[in-house]
């Protein structure tokens, strides 16, 4: 018998939204339930003086993922969002005044490295970029866009001819050790080692495969007109146009099961919603901790606190810069990376000499000139351990972190004239409240060791009819990866449904959802 209940998606982060759009576009009834008052999850904003500031991801990469997502729904990304390609990927600075810009254009970066660190380093950088592309091309279809493999299935997927490519991506080496074969200048080693923090990890423990980030950035880093949350809003609008429903301020308290299969949800209000299947778009730690009910604890294995990825401290301010030519994205490095990551992952303390990321949101498409007069919108970020549930930072510790942060910026030549409104500070404790059971971790499990990527849960949980999406599951954290996880969850769900409920066509005539989960043209 075909059930006519909708698919219920818990959470309107990018994974849940991507899943909902894919299903709704295939004529499957979907209801998205979001506890917050806006869509986006970690794709969020904060307000200062009536203005909105990005408070999560600050750029769009892997644009093709989103082009494909919209195309599969019979739409065009460019019709819903205005995107500008960044010319400068980031401006990097060190104590004492050294500065270096990394460009989207390979040849400009080669020339910049030659001027900054010498011709030999520039030649090695070119070889590094070729290696990064090879890693990306090896893993793109076989791993990132595929249902979560294990080492054996990955080897089978690439085939005999691809085994050599798998070996050449150095899966057992750490990012730091492999980078050391390309970069002899410690500043460049530090710069590219920062790619590990994109998934909340340490370059001294993360696998060398993360070098693929260099190629991803060269393929395009895009700025979203109006702020990053417009991406989530555009997807949400399209879900509604395809017949799906999104309910905000609707916190799910329990995922229910019937005869061992997910059967629906119970809201905090007591309302019950029956479901033909449930997709959980949240950190899987919440399931394992029993925050969605006792039965849901069986869905996935818990993550030990020491396995968590990084958290952060952020400051959102309106201010005018002095003495340093900011671009949109700026990184001010601490003096000792080994010490910084030892403090974060071994000593479990906020670094005493932190690396600071500054997003100057009002910098224009060339990322250098401000688009407004007067105070600009800034987000400043330093990494922190995800221990908010066991070692929350007290006000004195937070004040010391802020002092260290401004001191680091000053050592690199940047000072500010603040607007009158105090900074909005977000701590690991705040992140832990927003993303329950994480301790403040922003990227799920840390990507440490060669097997870490295989240890993330797949889109199919251990409970029949319960699927998983988001940055804590395969293929990993980050906006495009979360979108891919949602698509993988949708594909797994549709594959498991009775064939009579599936719609094979991807016609641009937009099937409309009916109560039975079938479709009409």
Indicate the topology.
Elements: E1 7-10, H1 14-25, E2 30-33, E3 45-48, E4 51-54, H2 63-72, H3 77-80, E5 83-85, E6 88-93, E7 99-103, H4 106-117, H5 119-144, H6 151-168, H7 175-179, H8 186-193, H9 212-219, E8 222-224, H10 229-241, E9 245-247, E10 252-258, E11 261-267, E12 272-274, E13 277-281, H11 284-288, E14 311-322, E15 329-332, H12 337-345, E16 356-360, E17 376-384, H13 395-411, E18 415-418, E19 424-426, H14 428-434, H15 452-455, E20 466-469, H16 479-496, E21 512-513, E22 519-520
Parallel strand pairs: 1-2, 1-13, 2-9, 6-15, 13-20
Antiparallel strand pairs: 3-4, 5-8, 6-7, 10-11, 11-12, 14-17, 14-18, 14-19, 15-16, 16-17, 21-22
Helix pairs in contact: 1-10, 1-16, 2-16, 4-5, 5-6, 5-9
Briefly summarize what is shown.
This protein has 521 residues and is α+β, with helices and mostly antiparallel strands.
């Amino acid at each position: 018998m075909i059930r006519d209940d909708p698919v219920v998606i818990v959470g309107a982060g990018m994974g849940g939204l991507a899943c909902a759009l894919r299903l709704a576009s295939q004529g499957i009834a979907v209801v998205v339930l979001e506890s917050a008052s806006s869509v986006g999850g970690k794709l969020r904003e904060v307000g200062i003086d009536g203005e909105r500031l990005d408070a999560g991801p600050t750029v769009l990469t892997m644009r093709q993922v989103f082009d494909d997502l919209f195309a599969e729904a019979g739409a065009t990304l460019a019709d819903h969002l205005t995107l500008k390609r960044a010319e400068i990927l980031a401006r990097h600075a060190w104590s004492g005044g050294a500065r270096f810009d990394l460009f989207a254009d390979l040849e400009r970066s080669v020339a910049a490295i030659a001027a900054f660190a010498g011709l030999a380093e520039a030649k090695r950088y070119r070889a590094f970029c070729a290696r990064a592309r090879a890693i990306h091309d090896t893993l793109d279809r076989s791993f990132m866009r595929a249902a979560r493999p294990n080492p054996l299935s990955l080897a089978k997927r690439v085939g005999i001819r691809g085994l050599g490519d798998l070996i050449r991506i150095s899966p057992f080496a750490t990012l730091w050790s492999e980078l050391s074969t390309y970069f002899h200048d410690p500043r460049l080693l530090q710069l590219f080692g920062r790619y590990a923090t994109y998934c909340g990890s340490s370059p001294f423990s993360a696998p060398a495969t993360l070098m693929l980030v260099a190629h991803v950035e060269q393929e395009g880093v895009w700025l979203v007109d109006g702020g990053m949350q417009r991406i989530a809003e555009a997807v949400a609008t399209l879900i509604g146009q395809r017949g799906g429903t999104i309910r905000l301020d609707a916190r799910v308290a329990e995922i229910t099961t019937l005869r061992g299969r997910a059967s629906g949800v119970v809201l905090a209000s007591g309302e019950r919603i029956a479901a033909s299947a449930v997709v959980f778009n949240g950190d899987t730690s919440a399931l394992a901790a029993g925050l969605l009910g006792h039965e849901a604890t069986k869905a996935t294995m818990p993550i030990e606190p020491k396995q968590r990825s990084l958290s952060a401290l952020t400051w959102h301010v309106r201010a005018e810069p002095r003495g340093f030519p900011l671009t949109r994205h700026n990184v001010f490095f601490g003096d000792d990376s080994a010490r910084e990551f030892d403090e974060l992952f071994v000593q479990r303390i906020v670094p005493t000499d932190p690396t600071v990321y500054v997003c100057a949101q009002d910098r224009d498409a060339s990322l250098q000139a401000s688009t407004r007069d007067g105070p600009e919108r800034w987000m400043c970020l330093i990494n922190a351990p995800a221990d908010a549930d066991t070692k929350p930072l007290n006000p004195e510790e937070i004040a010391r972190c802020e002092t260290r942060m401004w001191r680091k910026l000053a050592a690199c030549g940047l000072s500010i004239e603040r607007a009158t409104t105090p900074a909005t500070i977000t701590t690991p404790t705040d992140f832990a409240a927003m993303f329950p059971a994480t301790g403040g971790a922003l990227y799920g499990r840390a990507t440490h060791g060669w097997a870490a990527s295989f240890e993330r849960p797949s889109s199919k949980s251990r409970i029949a009819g319960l699927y998983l999406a988001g940055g804590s599951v395969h293929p990993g954290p980050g906006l495009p990866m979360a979108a891919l996880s949602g698509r993988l969850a949708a594909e797994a769900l549709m594959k498991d449904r009775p064939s009579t409920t599936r719609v094979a066509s991807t016609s641009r005539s937009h099937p409309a959802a009916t109560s039975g989960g079938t479709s009409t043209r």
